[in-house]
Amino acid sequence: MPTRIIFTFLFLSLFAGSALAMEATDSAASHPLPVGSTMPDLLLRGELNPKHLGHLGLKGPAPRHLSEIKAKTVILVAFSMYCPHCQREAPALNELNALIASRDLSDDVKLIGVGIGNSDFEVQVFRDKYAITFPLFSDPDFRVNKEIGEVGTPFFYVLALNPAKKEVRVAKTLLGRMKSAETFLAQALKACDGGK
């Protein structure tokens, strides 16, 4: 009996250690969409200000479909306001958005967030607390999270949009925090042929 307890403790310690190493909240139910697959045309809900609507090329309030975003590359980050890793990642996400703008990529590359399990109110709290500079959508009923594979948080999907075919392709994924915003942007652009 004591041996079983020791092995259980060691197994749980290893599992917890790996989750901390990748700096993400994850579950066994997670099944992310693989690179090269087609992303469903997600229905994005939530309250966006006119500046963010204009930035995304959207007219009128949400809900809007992912394919309506005017960009060649979309970086979608699944987050939760309750995820400590997402909270620590917030400044790096703002840095990533600033890098996109400073490199004159804002017309072709868009960064958006989806608050997994978060209401409009919770998303607004996260937006305000971390002075988020990019559009955030809500997913209070986990509908989007189910479509994207019940991923942990933070989870990044780099998506290549093909408006002619009305297709969104998964170009890169990442569970956990970025090593650096600059490195991640370079990898994202490479995965999507420069975002152009």
Commentary on this structure:
With 196 residues, the protein is of the alpha/beta class. Helix content is 37%, strand content 20%. The protein contains six helices and seven strands; from the N terminus they run αβαββαβαβαββα. The strands form two sheets. A five-stranded mixed beta sheet has the order 5-4-3-6-7. Helix 3 packs across helix 6. One of its GO terms (molecular function) is oxidoreductase activity. It holds the Pfam family AhpC-TSA. This is Peroxiredoxin. Keywords: Signal.
Brief overview:
With 196 residues, the protein is of the alpha/beta class. It is 37% helix and 20% strand.
Topology:
Elements: H1 2-22, E1 43-44, H2 50-56, E2 64-65, E3 73-79, H3 84-102, E4 109-116, H4 120-129, E5 136-139, H5 143-147, E6 155-162, E7 167-175, H6 181-191
Parallel strand pairs: 3-4, 4-5
Antiparallel strand pairs: 1-2, 3-6, 6-7
Helix pairs in contact: 3-6
Structural class: alpha/beta
Strand element count? 7
Largest sheet: 5 strands, mixed
Give the CA-based shape.
globular
List unreliable stretches of 5+ residues. 3-21
Major beta sheet, strand line-up: 5-4-3-6-7
Domain Thioredoxin: 33-176
Protein name: Peroxiredoxin
Pfam families: AhpC-TSA
Keywords: Signal
